[in-house]
Specification:
This is DUF7382 domain-containing protein. The protein has 150 residues and is α+β, with helices and mostly antiparallel strands. It has 2 domains: 7-45; 48-148, Immunoglobulins (Immunoglobulin-like). It has 1 helix and 9 strands, in the order H-E-E-E-E-E-E-E-E-E.
Length: 150
């Protein structure tokens, strides 16, 4: 008959324990991180960036000009009900000018930009607020309107 085995004297159980704990920790942390990054990318796949086509791109300072702006998604489709805002950048507007695109994705805005004394050129910033409940976003900068001294 074998003598009873004493648990306190048994040192065999510790041989593989540290490496098993490290492997379990790495797998336990890496797996959720990979799954979260995969799930995080799903929402961005459906987003469509918007851009603006401007006609004319160049306007004269001190002269009121009608500018046609067409909002397009990067899928090539026009964007209806988007709000287009033109505001001062290097060139000056008395206040921001805004309008909403129609079913053709176009809006016409009347701009009366000015330049500072001695300034020969400047720009006006164009921002798009996409319609709500759509997959359109405006994360990247849009084409600017160039203002030149007349």
């Amino acid at each position: 008959m074998r003598p009873p085995h004493r648990f306190g004297a048994d040192d065999r159980a510790i041989e593989g324990l540290p490496i098993r704990l490290i492997i379990a920790l790495v797998v336990g942390v890496a797996s959720p991180a990979i799954m979260m990054s995969m799930l995080g990318g799903i929402g961005t796949l459906a987003e469509t960036e918007t851009d603006v086509e401007i006609d004319p791109v160049t306007v004269d300072a001190g002269r009121t000009t009608s500018v046609d702006l067409t909002v397009l998604g990067d899928d090539g489709n026009t964007v209806e009900d988007a709000t287009v805002i033109v505001m001062s950048d290097d060139a000056w507007l008395d206040s921001a000018v805004k309008g909403e695109t129609g079913s053709d994705g176009e809006v016409t805005l009347r701009l009366d930009p000015t330049l500072r004394q001695g300034q020969r050129t400047g720009t006006l910033q164009v921002d798009v607020v996409p319609p709500t409940n759509t997959d359109y976003v405006d994360d990247q900068s849009n084409t600017e309107i160039v203002v030149i001294e007349n």
